[in-house]
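### Sample
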Amino acid sequence: MSYPANYKYTKEHEWIEVDGAKGTVGITDYAQNSLGDIVFVDLPKVGDTLEAHKIFGSVESVKAVSDLYSPVSGTVTAINEELKDAPEKINADANNTWMLKLDLSNSAELDGLLAAADYEKFISEETGH
């Protein structure tokens, strides 16, 4: 699986696509594959303030419930309402299925995230593949 080069990644398997001071957040294909069939997504509300590396919600699959961690700090401007009724969209195309959008409060936090090649290396070290 290749990961979009224009995204930044966390070691908790979230991605963020940045456009100026706005970010779009989702989980990686590796994460959805590890989770299995996703049956529920718990997301914050529009207007909520997120802190970098803190929990903002959870994803429930047939295997487990996993916390979601915000890659950066910011204010939620939109959530993907489609995921309430169709969380399986994440399984179908994790790299293009966003969970939330936010206004970044500190763009310098992006420097602490992984580039696509570094994320792929991290996964291979984590899985031994």
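Residues 116-127 form the longest helix (12 residues). This sample (Glycine cleavage system H protein) is used throughout the tutorial notebook.
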